[in-house]
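**Sequence with structure:**
===
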Amino acid sequence: MKKVIATSALGLVALGAHAQSSVTLYGIVDAGIGYQSSQTSLGSTSGGRSVIKMVNGIW
């Protein structure tokens, strides 16, 4: 009889323990890609360059 009561009690506890199906995050997510291009002047011997990078955001 004690085993039946203990098993029933554990079964009731197990019903209350379950994983949450969704997670809510609060804040601002702001990220992007930045592109910067440097052009050379007409008489310059050095070449221009382009940079693509991730831009920091706010979390």
